[in-house]
Amino acid sequence: MHPMLNIAVKAARRAGNLIYRSTDKIDHLTVTKKSHADFVTEVDRAAEQVIIQTLLEAYPDHAILAEESGAQGESEFLWIIDPLDGTTNFLHGVPQFAVSIALQHKGILTQAVIYDPVRNELFTATRGRGAFLNDKRIRVTKRLHLADALIGTGFPYSNFQHIDAYMNILRDVMQQSSGLRRPGSAALDLAWMAAGRYDGFFETGLKSWDIAAGCLLVTEAGGLVSDLGGENGYVKTGHICAGNPDIHGHLLKLIAPHLTDGLKATKV
Ligand code: IPD
Ligand code: CA
Ligand code: CA
């Protein structure tokens, strides 16, 4: 395992264990509302601190972009961290959440870890070396047709700027695919797609920490990721379409007539 991935795994496991231990205390947690339907708990913050501490102990000069504490440091190495993806699930005792850590080197994703502490599933990827689930190689599905495909998504829940376009896309995917799921953790959705559990995934308005690690997992598992117009600005815009190469193409075709200006492709 690449030494930087190894450190990221150590950080993700520490945070995951902390989160898992807190699941029987959810009724006593301090919960703060960041915006409409967007909550943060002391567990999110504590998990983030454990991750940052572990990473900076090994690499004191690296820069950090973390959901709860923001940006720190300047370096060509940038760690992008979502300490707890799926906070709403966590708060309700729904066992679908994960720790997500990615490393960008000079703007290119090079390492990825997504850890699901409930199932003890560790998804990892290093650029050019494939994607793994608990040390077993994973690959995207080979399904060719949308009619046979299971598609993951996330509903808009706080910012409803793109809701009309999203609903149009949702209606078409609902009618043309074999099924749709909204499990509530974008990081796990992408990791599951990489592992062949879904054939495709789309969502609007995500943040870079929701998707950075998941995107590398998908591409290293042989899948494709783009924004909703097929371009590559998705880590910034958060409008994302992923899939095995065939399903990704079908989804883009289905989405095209519903693309509004706000959701349009942004070349980076
Ligand atoms: C959320 C989850 C969810 C997605 C939201 C994200 P959080 O992250 O990934 O699946 O639909 O857009 O914000 O807030 O639980 O870290
Ligand atoms: Ca998130
Ligand atoms: Ca989070």
What does this structure look like?
The chain is an alpha+beta fold and 268 residues long. It folds into two domains: 3-138, Fructose-1,6-Bisphosphatase, Chain A, domain 1, CATH 3.30.540; 146-260, D-Maltodextrin-Binding Protein, domain 2 (3-Layer(aba) Sandwich). Helices cover 35% and strands 27% of the residues. The protein contains eight helices and 15 strands. The chain has helices spanning 3-21, 42-58, 87-92, 163-176, 186-194, 208-220, 234-237, 245-255; strands at 31-35, 38-41, 63-66, 70-72, 77-85, 98-105, 108-116, 121-126, 131-133, 136-138, 150-153, 179-181, 200-203, 224-226, 240-243. The strands form three sheets. The chain has an eight-stranded mixed sheet with strand order 4-3-5-6-7-8-9-10, with helices on both faces. Strands 12-11-13-15-14 form a five-stranded mixed sheet, sandwiched between helices. Strand 11 (150-153), helix 4 and strand 12 (179-181) form a beta-alpha-beta unit. Helix 1 runs antiparallel to helix 2 (42-58). The longest helix has 19 residues, at 3-21. The mean pLDDT is 94. The chain binds D-MYO-inositol-1-phosphate and calcium ion (2 copies). The site of one calcium ion (CA) has 6 residues, from strand 5.
